[in-house]
Amino acid sequence: MVHYSRSDLDKLPSRFKSNLINSCTGYKACNLLGTVSKEGTTNLAIFNSIIHIGSNPALLGFILRPLTVRRDTYENLRQNGCFTVNHVNKSIMEKAHQTSAKYEKQISEFEKTGLTAEYIDDFQAPYVKESTIKLGCHYENAYEIKENGCLLIIGSIHHIYLPENIQHTDGWVQLDKAQTLSGVGLDGYALPELLTRLAYARPDEFN
Amino acid sequence: MVHYSRSDLDKLPSRFKSNLINSCTGYKACNLLGTVSKEGTTNLAIFNSIIHIGSNPALLGFILRPLTVRRDTYENLRQNGCFTVNHVNKSIMEKAHQTSAKYEKQISEFEKTGLTAEYIDDFQAPYVKESTIKLGCHYENAYEIKENGCLLIIGSIHHIYLPENIQHTDGWVQLDKAQTLSGVGLDGYALPELLTRLAYARPDEFN
Known about the structure:
Two copies of one chain form a homodimer. By secondary structure, the first copy, chain A, is of the alpha+beta class.
């Protein structure tokens, strides 16, 4: 077994440590966040920190790195209040990853990567046409994490778009049918295969 | 394409809505959190909201539902300041899921599920012996999410244990070699297969 103590971690080279810490917490969601600036420039950025916050009301969250450098996604969503969350699937993996490159503010990652901006139902932020599961969200709040200056952004879910035939009769969405990917660290992409769904767990029904 | 608007969501039955909203944000990490009470009762609970918060210092976070009912994990980690994060792998999937059953406070989920509590390097919280990737963490802070009363708990990573031969020379951990699972909604378990790692993205190197 390999063991890293806190003092070992403190001595690691920055890139090595970043790879280790980013991958050791488990698989991550893989989503593209779409926004548009007040000048009309679309922005697309890959995020691997989207998490479920609550169902009633329908809320999600994601982590934004400190605002010490330009953050186009944040600036845009604060300006017009809207952003989209688009699942990364196998067929757009390379293009999705490329959105992490540091393009100038006036450059659209849609244009540079070849992904298609799509406006649906008058929503004020662009979806990714090639993504098969997509959400339209409103900005709700931001919480500063004092330990490192990151922000937890809270959004409310106002639109959900799904392909036909991937949702079960109880509401659950079978993500492997959409070839949704999960992430490992900053640069690894994995394709999950569904093993099972398990019944609601009760104390007296397990051996 | 299936479309749910906000007003559609507001009309859905509670269980259906919970299944939909919990699965539509993408794959989730799948971890068991181990704690111990001041009376010495071990506690183990499955969490699917662990996220990376930062590498320097090494921080992770997870979402805790509102404190309107008993939350043993939270009470324990506030009392002694320590908790463990243990990856759920394929061989312990059913036992891990069973920890979500509502056992009484004085009952240990380790005992009920047959998972083995293991203390390593004098750390004051139990690890899961059957889990192959595990972290020892200290409680750092809690942020209340006012939109629904949930808490974002921040922990610092003090120990990392990995199997031999799953870490690359640049620090990155290949999770599929440990058969780590990812979650879909509240009850789905998937086994990811690594597709690739992609190079650091630069604006001028993509066609």
